[in-house]
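User: Hey, quick favor. My workstation is busy. Could you predict this chain's structure for me?
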Amino acid sequence: MRPALLLLVGSLFATGFGCAHGRAAEAMELATAQDAMWSCQCLVTGMATGYDEEGGEHRIWLADDREVRAVVPGGEPVVLWTAPRFTRILRLEAGDLDGDGSDEWLVLFEANSLRSVVVGLRNGRREALSKPWNGYLRMLVDSNGQSMLVGQSSAGHRPFWGPIYPIELSAEGKLSKGEPLSLPAGTGLFDFFWLPASKEAGARLFSVEPTDQLAERDPRSPKARIWRSDNRIVARPVEIEREIRGYFGEEELRFIRLVAPVEVRDWGGDGRFEALLVGGVPRPAVVFENLRLHQGGDVRLLTAAPRGLEELHRSPLMGRAVAAASSWWSVGGRRFWVAAVWTRHRSLFKRPETRLLLLDPESGDLLPAAEALRVVVSAPAAVEEAAPVEEAAPVEEAAAAP
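Assistant: No problem, here it is.
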C-alpha cells in the first residue's frame, strides 16, 4: 500500500500545494468575476461533452432543473430536451453506445423515486430512447476502452442495492440486463471505474470507498483490495434527501451523495488512459429545497502508476464547489477542461449561481473567458435551432429493474 500512497501524495504536493495559497486566491477571485464562459442564477447538477454527429463540433451540455441545454461559446444556450413534469435532473453523462459517432445521454432524474433514461438523436432532435429505468444506470468505459451501459436496481427506494449488470439497449428501446459484473457486494453504481489496458499493463479497476478514499481492486478478484489512499480524494458534490423504506417497511430520512462522473479517455493518443474527476474534501454549503450542494472540490487528472495513481494536474479551485468537469475541444481544435462551478450561494429559497469556467489542461490553471474565446470563436459556432421541446407528461411508468 505504501508505494501507491507515496506516488499519489507526492504528486499532490508537487502539482497542488506548491503555490496553492496564491493560486487558490486568484482562482476564487477569477471564479466569482464576470469573466466566465457562461453563467446563470441556476442549479447546474450535471454536465457532459460529446458529439451530435461523427466529425461534427464538440458540444457542451448542461443539466439545470428539468432542462438539458447546449452552451454555445459567445451565444445563448439552447434547450434541447426537457425531463417529464414534476421531476428534477440530478446527473448527466454522455457516451457513444452504438458506435455511430453520435453520443447518447444518460439522465438521472428525481420523481417519486430516482430513475434513469437514455436520450439520443432521432430525426435531428433529442428524444428518450428508452422508458425510465426504475433504478440507476451509468455510462462506463469498460476494460477495453469501449462505452457501455451498466445498471443497478433499487429495492424499496433503497439506493445502490443489489448486483451491477451490463445493460443492452435494443433498437426498440428495451433495456435488458446480462450477467452480473464481478464486483464486491454493496458496491455503489457510481463508485468504481476502469482504466483500460495499455502497452505497459492490463486493465486496472479502481473503487471509490464509502469514506471517499480511492482504492485499487484486483480485476480477477475484485473483493481483494490492493491498496487504499490515506486521504479522501473523490468529492460527492450533489446530495439528495430521500425517504428510504427499511427491511420491515419503516421509513427513514437518508442522504444520498452522488459522485460526479469520472471521465476516462486516452487524451494523448499514446494508448494510456487517464481519469478526469472532481476531487477534494467537500463540506456542506447550502440547502436548496431537498438538495444539498457541497462546497470544495477541484478538477484532477490522474493516471495509472506501476502501483497506485499519479496526479498529473489539478485546478486551483480550493474553496469553490465544482459540480462536474469534462474535457472539451473548441472549434479551433484546442482542448480545455470545462467545469460547472457553484460560485455564489443563496438562501434556502433562492437558487445559487453557476458559472462555466475554462481551465488549461496542461497546468490546471483557470483561463479568463475572454482569452479563451479568442481561440474558440475562430469560426461561426452555433447550435442549430432546436425543434420546440414538447412538454412531457408526468412520469407514470418505468421499466422494471428486476
